[in-house]
């Protein structure tokens, strides 16, 4: 069943990617005022990073399950796992952006300067770079899947782009958990 016109996949991928990244960069850059989101109690804002690490771990699991499912030919299971992964990512991002806007910016690193410069910042930079690269790849893979019947997907770039997207997504989520551990566990 087609949900997206085939000739619009690239255009929709580009539009969704630009809009998504614009929102993320606006929030991270302090361009969205905290008054634009509902006020939350401090305990809720403090809970968001812990909820997000659970969402990240769950997404790693569902991406892995989706990858294994498609290798075994279980298309329905693959689709369910990848849509669940996307839902987990969207939930993670919504909570992350809400907290970012509500608190006025990123959380400062509480550890030693040497760890900040030589461990935390490089890990964070790679995590962010991979997340940025993943956005159009994930959109493209999803839109291609919605634009073609299952039998036609083998003749598209869905599998190739999906493998790259899933790999980068897994690494990005894993690095996000390491960043969380540095911010909330180690220091």
State Rg: 18 Å
> Which quaternary structure do these chains form?
single chain
- What order do the helices and strands follow? HHHHH
Shape: globular
The CATH architecture term is Up-down Bundle
Number of structural domains: 1
Helix content: over 70%
Distance between the termini: 50 Å
* Uncertain segments: none
Classified by CATH, the class is: Mainly Alpha
SSE-based structural type: mainly alpha
* CATH topology tier name: Four Helix Bundle (Hemerythrin (Met), subunit A)
Largest sheet: none
Number of helices: 5
Q: Give the overall average pLDDT.
A: 95
- The amount of beta strand, in percent, is under 5%
Count of beta strands: 0
Protein name: Putative membrane protein
InterPro entries: DUF420 (IPR007352)
Pfam families: DUF420
Transmembrane segments: 50-68, 80-98, 118-143, 164-183
């Amino acid at each position: 069943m087609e949900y997206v016109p085939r000739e619009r996949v690239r255009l929709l991928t580009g539009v969704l990617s630009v809009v998504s990244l614009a929102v993320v960069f606006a929030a991270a850059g302090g361009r969205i005022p905290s008054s634009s989101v509902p006020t939350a109690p401090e305990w809720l804002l403090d809970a968001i990073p812990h909820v997000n690490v659970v969402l990240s771990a769950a997404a790693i699991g569902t991406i892995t399950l989706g990858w294994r499912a498609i290798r075994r030919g279980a298309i329905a299971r693959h689709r369910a796992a990848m849509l669940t992964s996307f839902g987990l990512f969207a939930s993670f991002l919504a909570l992350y952006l809400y907290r970012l806007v509500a608190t006025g910016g990123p959380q400062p690193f509480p550890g030693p300067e040497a760890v900040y410069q030589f461990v935390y910042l490089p890990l964070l930079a790679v995590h962010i770079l991979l997340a940025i690269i993943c956005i159009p790849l994930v959109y493209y893979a999803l839109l291609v899947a919605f634009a073609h019947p299952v039998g036609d997907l083998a003749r598209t770039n869905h599998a190739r782009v999906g493998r790259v997207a899933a790999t980068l997504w897994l690494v990005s989520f894993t690095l996000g958990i390491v960043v969380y551990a540095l911010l909330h566990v180690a220091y």
